[in-house]
Design brief:
Four Helix Bundle (Hemerythrin (Met), subunit A), disordered N terminus, 288 residues, Helix Hairpins, mainly alpha
Length: 288
């Protein structure tokens, strides 16, 4: 087993300034992250209070002051996180979450923003979304959603084709019998789309049996192909994306640890750390 640099090794080689070390310690501390989490929640509460006209009339100025205080705290947080990277500020921008945080906070200082109430509310609302970066499991879910989009898009095309084919068949069978549901391809596809939930399947089966018992084959085959097969494919795509997101998050956390380890850690030691982590990740994936 390769040797991973210990904390003593890192401290022995760490040539960072006291300010950088202090900021790195603060940025990684549980208390700091919990405090920022609480501020984001408080910001969300204030935004919710601004939707009540009576509260805005009585305490509108106080709410604006609170929003400015929250913004100031977020600016300080970003400064601390950026300073923690010391002489390697590029490492800060390699994280998409850090870039998102920076854009959201900077947006509050854009010229003319405060004169546009809609844009101001959107900018404040975007700050609440920063809560995602503080919850690892939530980050994994958001990353998984992003990773699943190509597969979901392909599945959506397949679903549309399925709805079109069954819609045309339904129009052929039920055009005269049920014109409201199947009188046009648009109505037929809409009826079948609603039927994906299977809640109105019994009603449609009864509608078809009033015409012929053979229509049961149409509805049963549609339920098997559209409701069961497509949904199970969707679940498979999401699960696969979730596993990929977990691997990405693990690699990101490792990169952050190496980035904060110090300027003087040798390249070989960093490679060793990365290899060990990849070996552990591969073993974990094989167990699953």
């Amino acid at each position: 087993m390769r040797r991973t640099p210990s904390t003593d090794d890192i401290e022995a080689h760490d040539s960072r300034s006291p300010l950088v070390r202090a900021c790195a310690t603060i940025a990684d501390s549980l208390v700091f992250n919990v405090a920022i989490f609480a501020v984001i929640l408080a910001n969300a509460v204030v935004l919710g209070l601004e939707t009540y006209p009576n509260i805005v009339r009585d305490a509108g100025d106080e709410l604006d002051v609170l929003n400015d205080v929250f913004l100031g705290i977020f600016v300080v947080e970003l400064v601390v996180r950026l300073t923690a990277f010391g002489s390697r500020p590029g490492g800060f921008f390699r994280s998409g979450w850090n870039v998102f945080d920076l854009v959201v906070v900077i947006a509050a200082f854009l010229p003319g923003l405060r004169e546009n109430s809609t844009l101001l509310r959107i900018a404040r609302l975007a700050r609440v979304l920063r809560i995602v970066r503080l919850l690892p499991d939530l980050r994994v879910l958001v990353t998984a959603i992003g990773r699943s989009l190509p597969g979901v898009a392909s599945l959506a095309v397949l679903a549309i084709v399925t709805l079109f084919v069954y819609g045309m068949i339904g129009w052929t069978i039920f055009d005269d019998h049920a014109p409201e549901q199947y009188g046009t391809i648009g109505n037929a596809m809409l009826t079948l789309f609603v039927m994906l939930s299977l809640e109105n399947l019994p009603d449609n089966i009864e509608l078809g049996r009033a015409l012929s018992d053979w229509t049961i084959l149409y509805f049963v085959s549609y339920a098997l192909v559209a409701a069961f097969l497509l949904f199970n494919i969707l679940i498979g795509v999401v699960i696969n994306s979730l596993e990929e997101a977990r691997a990405i998050e693990h690699a990101r956390e490792l990169a952050d640890q190496v980035e904060h380890a110090g300027d003087e850690i040798t390249l070989q030691e960093r490679i060793t750390t990365l290899r060990d982590a990849l070996d552990d990740l591969a073993a974990d994936l094989r167990k699953r």
